[in-house]
Amino acid sequence: MRLFRLLKIQYVAFQFGLDEFVLSHSRLRFLRVIVKTLTFWRNLDKPRGERLRLALATLGPIFVKFGQMLSTRRDILPQDIADQLAKLQDQVPPFASDLVFTILEKEYGQKVEEVFFKFDSTPIASASVAQVHLAVLHDGTEVAVKILRPNLAEVIAHDIALMDTGAWLAEALWSDGKRLKLRQVVSEFARHLDDELDLMREAANCSQLRRNFLDSPLLLVPEVYWDYCRNSVMVMERVKGIPISHVDELIAQGTDIPQLARVGVEIFFTQVFRDGYFHADMHPGNIFVGKDGRYIAVDFGIMGTLSDEDKNYLAQNFLAFFRRDYARVAQAHVEAGWAPKDTRVDDFESAIRAVCEPIFDKPLKEISFGRVLLQLFQASRQFNVEIQPQLVLLQKTLLNIEGLGRDLDPNLDLWKTAKPFLENWMSEQIGLRGFASRVQKEAPNWAVILPEFPRLVHQMLSENRNHELEKRMTDLVIEEKRQNRLLALIAILLAGLLAWQIFQ
């Protein structure tokens, strides 16, 4: 099956003329005549960006997600390709209405009109994994109904298998393969894709994020209507807003665009460092802006989590980076185990400085993060820095946020916006407030343990006494056995001496 899927990928690539992206290189142009002769049957009248979008949509959800991620990187993509890939965010071709009603009736065991007072069979959004329809409940509540695309699991399984095979080959044949932990990265990606194929999990993700930002002036998360949620169907509050990519409409509404960009950065760092739980698919198709200026999040299929240890080391790295303390950045990598213990910190510091120093005091419009990441990758390879699979989603989300900020306000100073937030967070973690917060957090546990403390101490002392007594008894037995063996040896020697005297 993997072979058939690989052949289909190659066929689709040739069908839509994606080979021109490779053959445009000067060293490979001689092959264009040969390929054109062999593929005379192709119709390549459409622009290259549109053909790329159609090819990714044809190949399925994993390729669509790849296109969505690329669409946010207008700093490294030509304008025509970026504009077409942006349509993958919410304009993937929908599946047929009769399938929609079949899925709903199978999940609810009732006719659609018995579940919903009104149901719009035309989707308002269609993405790689699901599509969304508007409906009204019998009590008049307006809702959005998300329905999973049919027969996705098999296609995704094949694609993941191909990715895993590719990762295995890369680790086996490429010197950097093992350091990058490519198979672990694929495994992490697959785990989150599995979550996306269960809309009950997505509903739980949405509910958790809503609790984290309940009554927040920054972010609105819709309410989940659990009585109507199933594995293939999710029903939530209908939220109204303008897509964040429609900047002209936002300006007409009176939205402060530079402030909106700064709020986006604050929301991201709040999710990461306050909660350790973040929306990991923050492309423009999943974000709207309400009349009150709040962000509105939708699509909660991919959420990232961070441990307290990850948050602490990340915060130290970010803060040291913003303060241009490259020695601390290098040292933090060694302390976290991301770089080998024998790393020369001064050499690592110099390499990081060479990459990062040129981009400070510049607005986003003058920074190519694609180039910066490439240079950091080269430096990490030089010092054998291990890729952390649990941080891959965070890196992806950070790229999305940076791309979004670039679109909203090219003059945004990412460093100045994020630095005060991180400094405040660090003071809460390691200062007096941090100590008081941890004491308060652990107080319920202490309330349970303290009344039992005398009994636990007595039990420990008793166990120690019993252990000591048992040890002493064991030692006595061993000593007795040793003495018995010694007496037996003496008796044998005396008997030998006596026999020798007699026979003399």
Automatic annotation (TrEMBL):
InterPro entries (UniProt xref): ABC1_dom, Kinase-like_dom_sf, UbiB, UbiB_bact, UbiB_kinase
UniProt-listed Gene3D superfamilies: Transferase(Phosphotransferase) domain 1 (1.10.510.10)
Residue span(s) of domain ABC1 atypical kinase-like: 87-332
One protein family per Pfam: ABC1
Keyword set, alphabetical order: ATP-binding, Cell inner membrane, Cell membrane, Kinase, Membrane, Nucleotide-binding, Transferase, Transmembrane, Transmembrane helix, Ubiquinone biosynthesis
KW Thylakoid (keyword) present: no
Pathway(s) it belongs to: Cofactor biosynthesis; ubiquinone biosynthesis [regulation]
GO process terms (BP): ubiquinone biosynthetic process
Membrane-spanning residues: 486-503
Gene Ontology molecular functions: ATP binding; kinase activity
Record flagged with keyword Zinc-finger: no
Family: Belongs to the protein kinase superfamily. ADCK protein kinase family.
Protein name: 2-octaprenylphenol hydroxylase
Organism this protein belongs to: Nitrosomonas oligotropha
